[in-house]
Specification:
The chain is built from 14 helices and 20 strands. The chain is of the alpha/beta class. The structure holds NADP nicotinamide-adenine-dinucleotide phosphate and magnesium ion. The site of NADP nicotinamide-adenine-dinucleotide phosphate has 27 residues, from helix 7 and helix 8.
């Protein structure tokens, strides 16, 4: 099919002022790591180095936790309205500097600028606004009359929504009067470090937010530190399990947001064009690096052929390439390691007998890329139907009745998200009540709002982030 060629529409990088090297953000300033070691963070779209990042170790984590503890004494005693002033100020600065954050996020993560600009960064600011609003209303949040902060929160986040995950962690923690030590993912530290500058600009008291960059062992040090009262983790189920073991038997509180294998369920009466858009948004948004991605399409047998044909036609129009080009729909895979994992799992799909089809887009020579891919003839036993691929790869299964759809959708170790496409309200309600998933979308997919709670069942973790429910993890209260 002929595709209209668009002229390139690159977003300017000039808004971003990168430093050559970034220290750790501890007690309100950037400091050298104890080891003196730095590693390079790159742009996954062309593998060019962006900056040198401090490798934080146990001594640095200790220093950050102590700073957070000292800051807690004063921060926790401020009135909610006083804390809210700072959080509102952060939210407004994030809006003012939105373009800078969007460009930097796309450079370090590989996601298309239209997503970082229109989805990630606006949602980040919205999260801070939302939780600023809660700070002076905590006694009305439904947790009893005297909610108190937990203390120092140790927070570890992944690379797929770097700044958004930071906001989900930091905004509620601060609103409730806690202080934090946050470890960004090793591949995507830059927007967290720019956020540290925003904390300075907002004159947030020193030590309330500390950012310690580094690798796995830096995260492990945050989780294990005796001075941490609450651990909040978003990432893989394997690492979540290790963290649960570390925290077991301590006084620490724990919330885990882990992996998923979401079912996007299309009934024969669904509005077909909208459903196809929803399928595309469900799995190709953010290169499929989405824990709640609709990575399993369950389509009613009578319309399966037509849905798949329309889906392929739509996939041919997806523009894959330069994340900073405003026309781009699908950007770069975040790392060589993630690309290897996506390739390995996709190869297993072919080996196990599923039928593979990819859009015939041209991929850039440099950087990490994977064409949008769909597998048909998938059975429930295939690895691509069971394991989280975390890439732009969709597995299609079919069903005949609602009961079969529910059984197949629930046949997974995970339980994060699901989607339903039908005109029948009664069917939506029935499905939603029987699906074992923390989030169920109806006739839409991947819709986020700071007021709605997000979290999983089963091996997708426990605890909720967002909304009133998202306060619970950060409060000591009579009814938490
Ligand atoms: P990951 O390996 O679990 O890493 C997540 C974070 O934990 C990173 O900062 C990582 O540091 C750190 N880490 C690694 N090992 C650790 C340990 N033993 N102790 C403490 N921290 C440790 O996950 P990922 O591969 O980066 O992200 C992909 C996975 O995250 C997918 O499975 C996806 O489903 C899940 N995820 C879930 C959600 C959700 O909300 N439920 C959101 C996003 C992603 P390094 O960066 O150095 O590895
Ligand atoms: Mg990792």
């Amino acid at each position: 099919m002929a595709r209209i060629e668009y002229a390139p529409a690159p977003e300017s990088r000039a808004v971003v002022k990168l430093r050559r090297q970034y220290g750790l953000f501890i007690d309100g300033e950037f400091v050298e790591p104890a080891s003196g070691e730095y590693y390079a963070t790159i742009n996954p779209a062309d593998e060019s180095p962006l900056a040198l990042i401090a490798e934080g170790g146990e001594a640095d984590v200790d220093r950050a936790v102590r700073a957070a503890r000292r800051a807690f004494t004063k921060w926790s005693k401020l009135s909610g309205a006083e804390r809210a002033k700072y959080i509102y100020r952060i939210a407004r600065i994030l809006q003012e500097r939105a373009r800078e954050f969007a460009v930097l996020e796309s450079m370090n993560n590989g996601k298309p600028i239209k997503e970082s600009r229109d989805v990630d960064i606006p949602l980040v600011a919205a999260h801070f606004f939302h939780y600023a609003g809660w700070a002076d209303k905590l006694e009305y949040a439904g947790f009893g009359p005297n909610p108190r902060p937990v203390g120092v929160a140790g927070q570890v986040i992944p690379w797929n929504f770097p700044l958004l995950m930071l906001s989900w962690k930091i905004a509620p923690a601060l609103a409730c009067g806690n202080t934090v030590v946050l470890k960004p993912a090793q591949t995507t530290p830059l927007t967290a470090l720019l956020f540290a500058e925003v904390c300075q600009q907002a004159e947030l008291p020193a030590g309330v937010v500390n950012i310690v960059t580094g690798h796995n062992q830096t995260g492990a040090a945050v989780v294990a530190h005796k001075g941490v009262d609450k651990v909040a983790f978003t990432g893989s189920t394997a690492v979540g399990r290790q963290i649960a073991e570390t925290v077991a038997g301590t006084r620490k509180r724990l919330t885990l947001e882990l992996g998923g294998k979401g079912a996007n369920i299309v009934f024969d009466d669904a509005a077909m064009d909208q459903a196809v858009e929803g399928i595309v948004n469900g799995i190709y948004f953010n290169q499929g690096h989405v824990c709640c991605a609709g990575s399993r399409l369950l389509v009613q047998e009578s319309v399966a052929e037509e849905v798949v044909a329309r889906l392929k036609r739509r996939m041919q129009t997806l523009r894959v390439g330069d994340p900073l080009d405003k026309n781009t729909d699908v950007g770069a895979i975040n790392s060589a390691a993630q690309l290897a994992r996506i390739s390995e799992l996709s190869d297993s799909g072919s080996t196990e007998g599923a039928e593979r089809w990819s859009s015939d887009c041209a991929l850039p020579d440099k950087g990490f890329w994977f064409a949008p891919t769909v597998f048909t003839n998938v059975s429930q036993a295939h690895r691509i139907a069971r394991e989280e691929i975390f890439g732009p790869v969709l597995s299609v299964l079919t069903f005949r009745t609602p009961a079969e759809a529910i059984e197949k959708a629930n046949n997974t170790q995970y339980g994060l998200a699901a989607g339903i496409w039908t005109e029948k309200g009664s069917l939506i309600l029935k499905m939603a009540s029987e699906l074992r998933a923390g989030i169920v979308w109806a006739n839409t997919y991947n819709k986020f709002d700071p007021a709605s709670p997000f979290g999983g069942y089963k091996e997708s973790g426990y605890g909720r982030e967002g909304g009133r429910q998202g306060l619970a993890g950060y409060l000591e209260a009579d009814h938490v």
